[in-house]
Design brief:
This protein is an alpha/beta fold and 499 residues long. The chain has two domains: 5-278, no CATH class; 285-470, no CATH class. The chain is 28% helix and 23% strand. The chain has 13 helices and 20 strands. The strands form four sheets. Strands 12-13-16-17-11-18-10-19 form an eight-stranded mixed beta sheet, covered by helices on one side. The chain has a six-stranded mixed beta sheet with strand order 2-3-1-4-5-6, sandwiched between helices. The chain has a four-stranded antiparallel beta sheet with strand order 8-9-7-20. Helix 5 links the parallel strand 4 (102-107) and strand 5 (137-141). It binds zinc ion. The site of zinc ion has 4 residues, from loops. InterPro entries: MlrC, MlrC_C, MlrC_N. This is Microcystin LR degradation protein MlrC-like protein.
């Protein structure tokens, strides 16, 4: 077997176009920005797509050519300037890498850049131009990718996550790499078929443990048992992006063109027929808290403020759930994480043990509720650096840009120096808060946190608070999404684009 030189790169962001925040180079640097050999140090042994690329290439005796990794956590659109920098560094890295035999790219698929609605495709086009027509390229994509048919113009090899919470990033990384090797070693010719649906699916009920996405993913896996089908991916899409590519889609990779086409059509039809199952109504915050207080349980009850989930583009600083938790004067409760640089700074200046007056949250998107005034005792302060120990992104180093544990009455509150979802209990544990000892948890999360928290809590209650990631799409003033589109419009046929 030949020893191939395989380039690896990572270009990743989920952009909420209604967010007032802009994603800059600093956000990428804070989350994951690595060049060359540093990529191997950052991702070897991690359960990420890049971790999967690395393992397969090494196992096959190939030579890794680490190019550029740039990933930021979901927020507003990426600035044009940031994108230009990443793009030119990516192309430079490819230029300097010299001759390569293949390229593995971990993409998200729901990135939006100021003035560019499909930057992954634009990046792929630029890369393709640089490396020439024949270099095999394989990508991984997030389940929430907003895709258009054009992505097939540059390579047929695209593989989406099959789990939500995304705990199969590593497996899909391995799969993309394995398929790339099939093309390299055996000269296998792959085809891909794509169907775009006129459907904006809410992601709240998109978990793959149960419900409609579970059933759809099971169907996709069944198709993959056919040796002619290399991958069948269902993309739920990311509905908080006001772009022409928004919405659900299906992409099937295989060695039999006709079969990939039929399979993609079949799966897309199943998505369309199951669309209503994705919609669920949620209780208001006060009602949810009242019902949580009625529940007798030996484990905490988690209230999930999905509308401000930072991983869905929430600013991480809305206050309705916090305000109601304080108003109820709860005993033994925990709220977090609240992104509030100003209050965190005030805590850092006052030091642990002090009691200070703080005006919490409500700064980035005050339209969803004003700050909450509290007198709080500073319990502990950290630099906010810890390692994920839960099942998602296990082993990845996280930096919250500082953290403060404060207490107001019977409520423990975690403040952080940037917005991030409470997906790993280590976020709380690293500063000395044990979430399992609490009666009620108020968390800025959606679904990913369940990978780690389901075993720790007795129940999860999703609440309807105001925020950028509201489950109700009628709150958003869409201008660029394709119309008609379900559920905003009445339509008969769900297929928009095929290829
Ligand atoms: Zn996702």
């Amino acid at each position: 077997m030949a020893s191939y030189r395989i380039g690896i790169a990572f270009f990743y962001h989920e952009s909420h176009t209604f967010s007032p925040v802009r994603t800059t180079l600093d956000d990428f640097i804070q989350e994951g920005y690595h060049k060359g050999e540093k990529i191997l140090a950052a991702y070897t042994g991690t359960k990420t797509e890049v971790g999967g690329f690395i393992d397969v290439v090494r196992e096959k005796g190939g030579t890794l050519v680490p190019l550029l990794c740039a990933a930021a956590i979901p927020s507003g659109p990426v600035t044009r300037e940031t994108y230009e920098v990443i793009r030119s560094q990516m192309l430079d890295a490819i230029e300097q890498a010299g001759e390569m035999d293949g390229l593995l790219l971990a993409l998200h698929g729901a990135m939006v850049v100021e003035g560019v609605t499909d930057p992954e495709v634009e990046m792929l086009a630029a890369i393709r131009e640089k490396v020439g027509e024949s270099l095999p390229i394989a990508t991984t994509l997030d389940m929430h990718a907003n895709l258009g048919r054009r992505i097939l113009d540059f390579t047929p090899l695209h593989f989406g996550f099959k789990t939500y919470p995304h705990v199969d990033m590593y497996e899909q990384g391995c799969k993309a790499a394995t398929m790339l090797y099939r093309q390299l070693d055996g000269g296998t010719r792959f085809y891909a078929s794509f169907v775009k649906l006129r459907a904006l699916l809410p992601s709240l009920n998109m978990r793959t443990a149960e419900g409609p996405m579970h059933d759809l993913v099971e169907l996709a896996k069944k198709q993959e048992q056919d040796p002619d089908i290399g991958g069948a991916s269902i993309f739920g899409g990311f509905p908080y992006a006001d772009i022409p590519e928004a919405g659900a889609s299906v992409l099937v990779v295989g060695t039999d063109q006709e079969k990939t086409r039929k399979t993609a059509r079949f799966l897309a039809q199943q998505v369309w027929e199951n669309r209503e199952r994705f919609v669920i109504a949620l209780p208001k915050v006060r009602d949810a808290l009242q019902s949580a207080l009625q529940i007798q349980a030996d484990k905490p009850i988690a209230l999930a403020d999905i509308s401000d989930n930072p991983l869905s583009g929430g600013t991480g600083d809305t206050t309705e759930l916090l305000r109601e938790m304080i108003a109820l004067d709860l005993e033994n409760a925990l709220f977090g994480a609240l992104y509030d640089e100003e209050s965190l700074q005030a805590c850092m200046e006052a030091a642990a043990g002090a009691t200070i007056r703080l005006s919490l949250g409500g700064k980035l998107s005050p339209e969803f509720g004003p700050p909450v005034e509290v007198d709080a005792k500073i319990m502990a302060l950290t630099n906010g650096v810890f390692t994920n120990k839960g099942p998602m992104n296990t082993g990845l180093l996280v930096d919250t840009n500082g953290a403060a544990h404060i207490r107001a009455g019977g409520l423990d509150i975690l403040l952080t120096g940037r917005a991030l979802s409470a997906n790993d209990p280590e976020l709380f544990r690293h500063i000395g808060i044990e979430p399992t000892t609490k009666r009620i948890l108020g968390l800025k999360v959606k679904n990913h946190f369940r990978a780690a928290f389901d075993p720790l809590v007795s129940q999860v209650i999703y609440v309807d608070a105001p925020g950028l990631a509201s489950n109700d799409f009628t709150h958003f003033a869409y201008k660029q999404i394709p119309r008609p589109i379900w559920p905003l419009d009445e339509i008969d046929g769900g297929f928009m684009e095929e290829g």
